Amino acid sequence: MRGGQFPETKAEMIIAADTDGIARAARYLAQGGLVAFPTETVYGLGADATNGFAVAGIFAAKGRPAFNPLIIHVPEAAAVRHLAEVTPLAQKLAAAFWPGPMTLVLKALPNGPVEPLALAGLDTIALRVPSHPVALAMLRAARVPVAAPSANRSGHVSPTSAQHVADDLGERVPMVLDGGASDVGLESTIVDATGDVPVLLRPGAITREDIARVTGGAVLTVEDLKRGGAGQDAPTAPGQLESHYAPRARVRLNARDVMPGEALLAFGADVPKHTGPMLNLSHSGDAVEAAANLFGHLRALDRADVMVIAVMPVPYEGLGEAINDRLGRAAAAR
Fold first, then answer.
1. pLDDT tens-digit profile of 206-227?
2. Do 49 and 72 contact (CB within 8 A), yes or no?
């Protein structure tokens, strides 16, 4: 890093997200450093997206495959025009959902300022305007687009608190802005808005039904494109690796009972008998509450030192689609 010194101990790395803390984080970013910061979805690990060394630091800290692109965070929709080709569809989605938990994939401007490493060699760029006041204040102060995947080791459970970041990354990240627990608790919905029809690349807090209400038409998925012969193996957006969001313990999905020695991630009031560790995503069966609790509960059960986490079924309706997407990736073979 050019100028200044990073904190050297884990106790010092978590700082309050007050005016001084936000200003300090902005200086770190502008000088090429890494900063973990809160968003309404999960905590992000940020770096100046125009600085190749800084972006490489994200991959090194996370152990992230270089073919997995990063989301670029900006403080307002107007900033996107300096980075991407904005389609009418993108304008409509941005007007409806920004600031908020939606990432739009657009064609990157030729010779744009964002480092190719952040785009994973693609000709597209994933962009988001977060709604968290700390994130927005930091982005405005930094005055650079900020590349930021979730602030955890690649493939691990995403962090929804400053302590989660410290527990997972330790000294790999010099500063964590503590903005409290993430409200949403699930990563952003990712939509390909390069054409006329939205393509849902990753489900999230903004559902397919939400998108359809705004666009007034069909919402395609990656599976739809594959059936049409347009599929590809490499990720076209963040969070598409088959094994992702994984705890150390094996995850067993759609569990109707609990085997001896297993932990239970429950959902709803009808919980099977068990003797091991248990946390309930939502006793009332509320998908919003379940999404907010998902990663924190997975982390807590993983600390119980069990070999398997049994997960009760979660309905696929609405936000349940995103929850099941994350659980499926957590359970994938590694």
1. 999 999 999 998 999 877 777 7
2. yes
